[in-house]
Amino acid sequence: MEQTRKPMKMEVKFAENEEAKVVKASDALPLPLYLTNAVFFTLFFSVAYFLLTSWREKIRSHTPLHVLNLSEIVSILVLVASFVYLLGFFGIDFVQTPSLKDEEEDIIVQEDAHIVPCGQALECPRPQIAGIASPKPAQKAIVENPAMETPPPTAEDEEIIKAVVAGTIPSYSLESKLGDCKRAASIRREALQRITGKSLEGLPLEGFDYESILGQCCEMPVGYVTIPVGIAGPLMLDGREFSIPMATTEGCLVASTNRGCKAINLSGGASSVLLKDGMTRAPVVRFNSARRAAELKFYMEDPENYETISMVFNKSSRFGRLQSVQCAVAGKNLYMRFCCSTGDAMGMNMVSKGVQNVLDFLQNDFPDMDVIGISGNYCSDKKPAAVNWIEGRGKSVVCEAVIKGDIVTKVLKTKVAALVELNMLKNLTGSAIAGVLGGFNAHASNIVSAVYLATGQDPAQNIESSHCLTMMEAINDGNDLHVSVTMPSIEVGTVGGGTQLASQSACLNLLGVKGANREAPGSNARQLATVVAGSVLAGELSLMSAIAAGQLVKSHMKYNRSSKDVTTVSSA
Length: 572
Description:
Largest sheet: 9 strands, mixed
Structural class: alpha+beta
Number of strands: 13
Number of helices: 18
Shape: elongated
Strand content: 15-25%
């Protein structure tokens, strides 16, 4: 998500008198704490001894215990008073000590911490606090971070909020009515809290460029979610090193992928091959008879008509170039799967525009054709589908590496034979028994999702992009391991959508694939696809090794479990 590049303004308060002590519970006592404790301690045991001695004499003389003289009444009162003090106040010295330590630690953290919140992945220089001339040694700077605080609404905004709550102003129209996306988000947020009665405290509002997502990434925003980004690698792939950004909340994932990268690097690196590059869209049309549907199928597949269809399709974009059309008949319905190159864009919109041009053109020769939908699910987008697994969609990539036997032993802590056997029984046989579609791997979707979130890809396309076949084979007389991942439908782009946001753009820049490649259109997106496959290769290698060595549960208990008491964690 894009953050504003302006240095964040901070509010700085100063405690005027450093000599003023922190208020303690013991300050309410008239004497020093140690003297007060000593007095009540002495009183308690003195009167207790006096009463025990007195009651012993009463028992010996057969005097009723409830018959009390004045000294005994006073002693009982003193005993109760001293007991109450000791119960409630004797431990003050011990109770307030850790409290003071916590306060001192908070001050140290405030003084040492970067003022910009760690959740903002920005090119943010450390802000310079101006207008403060050499504060006296007796002053403490108390830094407040306004990024999590929403300022109270103005009188004008209050009226708009009430109108949104009442339904007289639609929430979706705030941006167009106000002309200020940040203000619209703030008003919508407050209205939502009042309507639902639920607080959005903890969901940041400040520090984001809402203008950048208008009409592109998200409608009716009320804030943004921060996801930590870790770096795995570097990964040596095709002779180049890549530091892999991974946005995830799953502990151990980045560490595991990083270990896989290390094993690959120490063995000489990985190599990749791009097999195919083409995005698909498949409209569904209907005729009055199956014969007419078949006639259009034959027309679309006739090589003599391809040039005409291609020319109509290609006029929609500079980069969209039709590659093929695959047709399937179902009764009197026809599904046409168009495949085209899309440059550095992921290309869904590009191919859809080209398909629409062809449908309009076909209406001239097939006026009885009824277009049911621009997408008939034969594409197939955001769903596990055999057509993607077999034919491919987006970028089809194979990535491989040879891991030396000693690296398997020393870095991955397992054996070549154990990995080969586990891969056959788990990724191949086990997946077949489960009836998976494209899921012949250990956890490809983990790495794909993390890289997609970090680089601004469509997270939902993780479904088909995670289609992966992981293979492992012992080579060189069983001493070394050949490992590969075959991924037929990696759908990525380096322009458009979420790639334009500042944080995601920064991660693309880290990989050296930011934006469009003007010299070789499409090469940045293809490079990103190979990096995704290489990252999956590293992740597969490490996880399979952990399972083979029996380390999976142990590592997750170490890296994927928090020791914090979640009931005390503040949302701010």
